[in-house]
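So, read this over?
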Amino acid sequence: MRILITGAAGMVGRKLTQRLVREGTLAGRQIEALDLHDIVAPERPQMDGVDIAIHAGDLAAPETATALAAKRPDAVFHLAGIVSGEAEANFELGYRVNLDGSRLLFEALREAGNRPRVVFTSSIAVFGAPFPDMIPDEFHPTPLTSYGTQKLIGEALLADYTRRGFFDGIGIRLPTICVRPGKPNKAASGFFSGIIREPLNGLPAQLPVPRSVVHTHASPRSAVNFLVHAAGLDGARVGPRRNLTMPGVAVSVGEQIDALRRVAGDHVAALIREEPDAAVWAIVRNWPTRFAATRARDLGFVAEESFDDIIRVYVEDELGGALPGL
């Protein structure tokens, strides 16, 4: 089995690669070749007996997608893209990377002709306010950001290319992935991780929105589980509605902080500083809150049950299971 991962140098891409290297199989098939692509060269993993190729380049350049698809992968994880805040700040770049890159990849896979399984990471940003208290699977996507619009167009392309038999696509609408390791990025949602990650590492954190904001989260571990599960799904069970809203934990920012206090103590939660940011609030105020995710749950997708669990995943996976110096 040959697997292609775009966006392989990103956080989720790295963790997905580590999972595949550790298990050596996907959907019950032995991994024989792994193509890792990003705008910068991903790190080469050690995987005995597997043909690993590292690719660096612009996916929105037609020759890049053509070269990747020419290797005729059996499974494609399309993770490449720029994040919400950057896509909103740079209109041209957002459409070039998030839309043109996806379209060119899908078209190159069509031309290659081998009909791979394609797992596409979309986002709950495809939905726009006003919202009901619980957003059902039938809720109409009406994005209120450029990022959400780009992802929604990608979903439509995925469904159409699947309908035409060019490949077998599954789109997964990720909730906010939290707690993200490493340094802050340009995602408008970055503070959701920052108010947990920085205090756990003994650093102050900025909270730019009110504590009453409610949002849905899943851990990086769950994100990888979603991807791997999607790769092995029976397309007949999914049916023609190929884009699925993933499950997650819906909590207010205040409840996030309460969970941090339970896991790590008052002195850690005290490192959070409320510093309103109008630009972040203008984006976040129109984001969805809670999802039923009934179809995804029925198809076997699973996330954490509480935000305490999400924090513990970060402590286990990134801090070695202990709170350093706290």
User: Anything to note?
Assistant: The chain has a mean pLDDT of 95. The first strand starts at residue 2 and ends at 6. The two ends are 45 Å apart (CA to CA). Residues 229 and 300 are 8 Å apart (CA to CA).
